[in-house]
Every structure is written in structure tokens, then in C-alpha cells.
Specification:
Number of strands: 6
Strand content: 15-25%
Helix content: 40-55%
Shape: globular
Strand order of the largest sheet: 2-1-3-4-5-6
Order of helices and strands: HHEHEHEHHHHHEEE
């Protein structure tokens, strides 16, 4: 009985016989010198929207944080456990990243859960429900719009949540101070799973603009 699922073992063997030999020097350098990525990506856990694949990134290029709905909570130094805030603190204070990208995606299950107020919790703890309540006011506003289709409401909240997370990033002193000094830039992006299109948030207007292929 293997200690890992067979498809993972197969994938690892393919990695070792294919990609690793071409990047072995890079891995050895990263092991020796440590990581120094310039960009942090806050993305969703969804298996269909892996940042490393979307941006064709090699080892050590991206510092990736993934959670349900690609949300960033507000700054709350209350002594509780804050995984997202801890990763953000490490990226900004220790790795000194120059960019933070909040990347949402189409057909997000977390966003769908936030819009569906009638759905039952997945467990007594209702961890997803509690987590997605971070954007409850926006979800309520979007849900009340009878002039939008269900798909339009979903896409709207997916993009609003990106703006929300960027606003919450600025509640962290380490982020707001460095952004003010021009040493850190915040970005928003939305990935369409069905088409592969990437929509990038205009930092001045907040609008999402489709990235044109050259």
C-alpha cells in the first residue's frame, strides 16, 4: 500500500525525470541562499486556478498564499491565530516583496457560498461560512440586485472581494507604510477559468481590464 496516492507518485516521478533536471541548479541555489521572490500572490484554494501555472513561474519566483475566496482579513493584532496575516507579515517584513497581487477567479465556490444565504453549513463549525462573512455586506448588496443574473452577481462579488482584500491590506501598518514610500505596490487580478483570460484591476479606477495578448 503506497504512502501517497498513486497519481501523486506518478507526478513526482515525471517531475524528477522531466522538469527537475533542467532546474536542478536553481533548486540548489534556492536551498543554499534561500528564497527572494519579488511578488506575493494571494489566491484561492481552488485547484483550477494555481498561480504558478497561470504565470508560468519557476521555483522561488512567487510567494503564494492560498485560502478560500482569496480573502485578506483586516489587521487584528488580538492574540488569536491568523494564518493569512502571518504569511503577509513574513512576505512583507522578512522577504521584503515588492508586489502583492490579490487574484480571484471565476466560478469561485467560496463566493458562491457567500451569495447563497440559504445553504446549510458543511459542518457544525461552519468555518467557511464564518470566513466568507468577511464580505457579507457586499454579498448582501449584490444578492439584492434583481437586475443581474446569477452569473453576473457571482462575477461582481468575485471582483468586489478583490478590491475588499486590497483595502484590508492597507489596514496593515507594514503594508500602508511601505506603499506610501513607493516600496510596495498592490495589484488586483481576476482569472477566467473557462477561457484562460486574465483581467487586471486598474489601480486608479478599480475597473477590471482584460489583458490583451500581444
Amino acid at each position: 500500500m503506497p504512502h501517497l496516492p498513486e497519481h501523486l507518485l506518478t507526478g513526482y516521478r515525471n517531475f524528477m525525470s522531466g522538469r527537475y533536471p533542467t532546474e536542478s541548479d536553481r533548486y540548489r541555489s534556492l536551498a543554499r541562499d534561500g528564497q527572494a521572490p519579488e511578488t506575493m500572490i494571494v489566491a484561492c484554494c481552488d485547484s483550477r486556478s494555481a498561480p504558478e501555472a497561470i504565470f508560468d513561474a519557476g521555483p522561488g519566483e512567487l510567494f503564494v498564499l492560498r485560502n478560500v475566496g482569496n480573502l485578506v482579513p483586516p489587521y487584528e493584532p488580538d492574540g488569536e491565530y491568523h494564518s493569512t496575516s502571518a504569511a503577509l507579515e513574513f512576505a512583507v517584513q522578512s522577504l521584503k516583496v515588492k508586489n502583492i497581487v490579490v487574484m480571484g477567479h471565476g466560478r469561485c465556490g467560496g463566493i458562491r457560498a457567500a451569495l447563497d444565504t440559504n445553504s446549510a453549513p458543511l459542518s457544525p463549525g461552519d468555518f467557511i461560512g464564518k470566513w466568507m462573512s468577511l464580505i457579507a455586506p457586499a454579498a448582501e448588496t449584490v444578492s439584492s440586485s434583481t437586475y443581474m443574473t446569477a452569473t453576473e452577481r457571482q462575477t461582481a462579488l468575485e471582483r468586489i472581494s478583490i478590491r475588499y482584500s486590497i483595502a484590508n491590506l492597507r489596514t496593515f501598518p507594514c503594508v500602508s507604510i511601505l506603499e506610501g514610500k513607493g516600496r510596495l505596490t498592490l495589484h488586483g487580478a481576476w482569472f477566467d477559468i473557462s477561457t484562460g483570460e486574465l483581467w487586471v484591476m486598474n489601480r486608479e479606477t478599480g475597473d477590471f481590464e482584460r489583458l490583451e495578448m500581444e
